[in-house]
Automatic annotation (TrEMBL):
Pfam families: ABC2_membrane_7. Keywords: Membrane, Transport. SUPFAM superfamilies: P-loop containing nucleoside triphosphate hydrolases. InterPro entries: ABCG_dom, P-loop_NTPase. The keyword Ribosomal protein does not apply. This is ABC transporter family G domain-containing protein. It comes from the Eukaryota. The keyword Transit peptide does not apply. GO terms for molecular function: ABC-type transporter activity. Residues 76-126 form the ABC transporter family G domain.
Amino acid sequence: MCRHNCRGRDAERHLWWTKEACHNSLAGEMLVGPASALFMDEISTGLDSSTTFQIVNSIWQYIYILCGTAVISLLQPAPETYDLFDDIILLSDGLIVYQGPREDVLTFFESVGFKCPERKGIADFLQEVTSRKDQKQYWA
């Protein structure tokens, strides 16, 4: 048990390698076999936005070709990654705030009194409008 403990720089290298190994094996483990539904939780943790986009785009292509479904949870997706999704399930405090087509999400929030500023990214708006401390700035 103690032989696997790392300290100092060795611990930092081990942690980095462990994270990278997990992210690098994500596609290899998930895309083996004829899965028609994929469920992925926070696959972008520790990745830059470009890598996250590439992974989600690859998953989108896989799902499109095989007529499958993917449910992916992401924290703070970049606009180009957000645009890859057809439908959105937005949660706040464990409750569903919105579930439906990505194209209708702003219309929904406007109907309940929240307006996204023109220069604000939709994904950023969705994150902030579901936060009690940040949503006041979006009241229409």
